[in-house]
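Journal club prep, shared notes

We agreed each person brings one worked example of a sequence with its structure written out as tokens. Mine is SDR family oxidoreductase. I'm keeping it raw so we can talk through how to read the token line rather than staring at a rendered picture. Sequence first:
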Amino acid sequence: MSDTAPMIHEDALPGHESRLNPKPQWQPRFNGSDRLAGKVAIITGADSGIGRAVAALYAREGADIAIVYLLEDDDAAETKRIVEMEGRKAITICGDIGEPAFADEIVARTLEAFGRIDIVVNNAGEQHPDKDITDISEDQLRRTFQTNIFGMFFLVQAARPHLKAGAAIINCTSVTMYQGSSELLDYSATKGAITAFTRSLSENLVSDGIRVNAVAPGPIWTPLNPCGGASPEKLENFGEGTPMGRPGQPNEVAPAFLFLACEDASYMSGQVLHPNGGTIVNG
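Then the structure, token by token:
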């Protein structure tokens, strides 16, 4: 086991979606068209926020889902119910994605339940606001990298032997990778690493018919920010600095993950999509 324990006592992260008011909008907005019929997806951080919206949309499009999460049993159970209401199967897998052994468990349990893996969505992440770089402890720095980028490496390594031609990997980076963020120095650094990982992994796997892409959301209303991931000052005007003047909703981001997972994106790899409220990042 790693010496870097989840930072669940410093703040309220990851946070319960069930306690948010207003509730994030996860509901798919259109009828499905079987774009993921017969597929199996592993989605980390699928208990709430963007991950829940992606799970709901993938299920509507015909996929069975492995819901990976850290702590929130009630939120994970609700996501499972949502998937099953779409007529698909779901399992919940609780643990710390920063641990290599947990990645092996995710893959083993997914294969046991569904017999295959077609899509890996590396969505889970954590952030901790700090106004000065000297406020970032070594433990926090290691923990943020452990979750946000090490976890992606571990899960891809575990899943790789089971991914066949036509499989897709989608990583969640962030607008902060392109714009920077004065209060999220360690988080932004991990998102830069994720973008580089996405592009390099794409080059590594493309000849085997496995596509690797990423999504870089802007400010999205999920438990991440109001449950300790943003300062109170930032929350007062959360998302209002975007050209659209508001934060986005999870179901406005999930379609980007669907596009990159299905055959509509068959000629795309190593790319990043930007559902960010109109911010131009030129990346």
